[in-house]
Design brief:
This protein is α+β, with helices and mostly antiparallel strands. Helix content is 22%, strand content 30%. It is globular and about 55 Å long.
């Protein structure tokens, strides 16, 4: 398998210095992009978020926006990945600054592709997180290289034998799931937590909200308790991999028939 590292195709594995800032501090960002028939989906939205995050972290992206599509195409073609998941990672280059401080905005650039693994559109069993909570901050809406809260949430999900976990924030309000944004439907009104809940500003979330508004569906961003989901008709999650419908949270069951709605596709 080949990867694209600082604009050069190299074979995996590759090595980094022990003082590398991605390894030492998680000082960087990433985007995960769906590839279908060699073409990236919603690439402009991913680049919007990457540029926004780079500005927050004082990073100068080492490529021009219009170059990214060709770089992705180069990688998936050489790896023969017709349908894939591509991860773009940027992180601050090493400098002579000590500790957490930095004195450069230059960064490394890595693109990795993996074959797409299709998942069922239905999630059988979910629950609410008990050991981890997410929190709003200036960087909670972007994908940084510090994903430890999501690692902890995923571990709890596995320990409890669940297929998904709905994570709350520090105020016990609905936030997101282990790797996706969350929507629910009640009486034909769609709901999702606002960015101020601490959830990721997901690309798939953005796409679905825009599609709902264009179709004149009612959509509300609400900061609310778990009981709002428990009383819903339908619950689904969104990320770059697609939309998945939850059939059960704890002992409450939900309708999954909206999985057939052509509007709810990516």
């Amino acid at each position: 398998m080949q990867i694209l590292l600082n604009n050069e195709l190299v074979n995996e594995p590759f090595t980094i210095d022990s003082n590398d800032r991605a390894f030492q501090y998680g000082d960087g960002l990433f985007e995960t992009i769906a590839i279908r028939n060699y073409a990236p989906r919603h690439l402009n939205y991913h680049l919007d978020r990457l540029q926004f995050g780079a500005k927050l972290l004082s990073l100068n992206l080492p490529f021009k926006r219009e170059e990214v599509s060709s770089k992705i195409a180069q990688l998936v073609e050489v790896n023969k990945h017709v349908d894939a998941t591509v991860k773009i990672i940027v992180w601050r280059k090493n400098s002579d600054a000590s500790g957490y401080s930095f004195n450069t905005q230059a960064c490394n650039f890595l693109v990795v592709s993996r074959p797409f693994k299709n998942k069922s559109r239905v999630i059988d069993k979910a629950g609410f997180a008990e050991t981890v909570a997410f929190h709003y901050s200036a960087i909670s809406q972007i994908k940084t290289l510090n994903a430890l809260p999501y690692v902890m949430a995923m571990h709890e999900k596995q320990e409890r034998g669940l297929d998904e976990l709905i994570v709350l924030n520090g105020q016990r309000k609905i936030c997101e799931s282990t790797s996706s944004n969350v929507f629910w439907v009640k009486d034909d009104i769609f709901y999702t937590p606002p960015i101020s809940s601490g959830c990721l500003d997901g690309v798939a979330r953005r796409v679905i909200i825009e599609k709902l508004k264009k179709d004149k569906r009612k959509i509300k961003e609400v900061l609310t308790e778990p009981k709002s989901i428990e009383g819903a008709d339908c619950v689904f999650t969104t990320n770059s991999g697609g939309i998945r419908f939850i059939s059960q949270i704890d002992h409450v069951r939900f309708d999954t028939s909206l999985a057939q709605d052509p509007l709810l596709t990516l």
